[in-house]
């Protein structure tokens, strides 16, 4: 496990208070947002202290999943960070989903839900406000990308796995400030195809096209590409604007829609890497203000 990065922490109000939270445990929480009761889980890492600012990760599940399920198979709660697992609302079609998708519940204001979660967790736990991150899978990955746009300055970086980038979840984001992003995607993903699709009735862009948009937005210089596993190629754009912004894409040849390294992934190509570990390594590189930008 990687140690938390050694940077000066910008602490939250919870560092001087005390809430009913214990290290190495997960607890359920509720909050009412625009008249709708919403649910989320909070996990404090081993060794957590209310006297030491700790990074915070908000982790958004995929369509049809539950927060507890996402916590179990991603292994994000093993990282040295406070982990929060919001739960999506049921859509008219039944499965739980997020507002960035065309099939989402019309009452889902997940941007407001995220604001409420940040307010609550910062009041109850000792959060390093300069080290707040978002992670999402599939439809949840699309939401994480949307949050980077709609809540500028709130997230130091965003990580997405098999993300679904529906056009309505990106409207108005063309001129948003750049945010460090990493995206993992399998070339054999049948749910969110790597080369894009319209076959499900919802247009989805090709993943290289989406990543290319982030690169152009951040004005990045040519990337460094390397193979990190037999079927996995990682491309990193290190030199972007402002200095310190980084864009990364992890292409898994033959990989499917599973979370790489998940407890239920089996020995498929996507299981030869561990997404949670690589995401934490990426987050550890994000140090807001270090470059004076």
UniProtKB/TrEMBL annotation:
GO terms for molecular function: feruloyl esterase activity. The keyword Secreted applies. SUPFAM superfamilies: alpha/beta-Hydrolases. The keyword DNA-binding does not apply. It holds the Pfam family Esterase_PHB. One of its GO terms (biological process) is xylan catabolic process. The lineage of its organism: Bacteria, Bacillati, Actinomycetota, Actinomycetes, Mycobacteriales. It is found in: Secreted. GO terms for cellular component: extracellular region. It comes from Gordonia crocea. This is Polyhydroxybutyrate depolymerase. Its main location: secreted. Keywords: Carbohydrate metabolism, Hydrolase, Polysaccharide degradation, Secreted, Signal, Xylan degradation. Gene3D superfamilies: alpha/beta hydrolase.
């Amino acid at each position: 496990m990687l140690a938390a990065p050694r940077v000066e922490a910008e602490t939250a109000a919870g560092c001087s208070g005390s809430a009913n939270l214990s290290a190495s445990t997960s607890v359920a929480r509720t909050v009412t947002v625009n008249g709708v009761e919403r649910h989320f889980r909070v996990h404090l890492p081993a060794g957590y202290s209310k006297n030491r600012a700790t990074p915070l990760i908000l982790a958004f599940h995929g369509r049809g999943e539950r927060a507890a399920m996402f916590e179990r198979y991603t292994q994000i709660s093993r990282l040295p960070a406070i982990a929060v697992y919001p739960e999506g609302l049921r859509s008219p079609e039944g499965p739980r989903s997020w507002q960035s998708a065309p099939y989402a519940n019309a009452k889902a204001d997940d941007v407001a839900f995220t604001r409420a979660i940040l307010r609550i967790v910062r009041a109850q736990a000792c959060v390093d406000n300069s080290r707040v991150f978002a992670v999402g899978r599939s439809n949840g990955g699309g939401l994480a990308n949307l949050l980077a746009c709609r809540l500028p300055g709130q997230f130091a970086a965003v990580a997405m796995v098999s993300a679904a980038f529906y056009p309505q979840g990106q409207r108005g984001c063309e001129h948003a400030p750049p945010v460090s992003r990493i995206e993992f995607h399998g070339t054999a993903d049948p749910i969110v195809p790597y080369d894009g699709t319209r076959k499900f009735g919802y247009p989805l862009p090709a993943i290289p096209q989406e990543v290319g948009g982030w690169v152009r937005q951040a004005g990045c210089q040519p990337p460094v590409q390397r193979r990190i596993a037999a079927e996995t190629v990682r491309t990193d754009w290190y030199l972007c604007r402002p200095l310190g912004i980084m864009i990364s894409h992890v292409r898994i040849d033959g990989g499917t829609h599973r979370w790489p390294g998940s407890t239920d992934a089996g020995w498929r190509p996507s299981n030869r890497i561990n997404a949670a570990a690589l995401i934490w390594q990426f987050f550890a590189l994000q140090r807001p203000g270090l470059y004076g930008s």
